[in-house]
Amino acid sequence: MEQKSVDKYMDRDIRTHAIIGAAMEAHRIVGPGHLEAVYQECLEIELRKSPLGRGFRGG
What we know:
The protein is mainly α. It has one domain (3-53). It is 71% helix and 0% strand. It has two helices and no strands. Helix 1 packs across helix 2. The longest helix is centred in the first third of the chain and has 28 residues, at 3-30.
């Protein structure tokens, strides 16, 4: 595999890991049984705190 191709997949894996981790943390903090809007707001906060935070605008 070409180096550029490997770098592209590694970058995608890092982003994917950060997004899934933020979603799991949001659910852990809020807990079950809330409306989607509650989880969405918490996820936005968690994403801003993640390595992706500088580029995340939400909404």
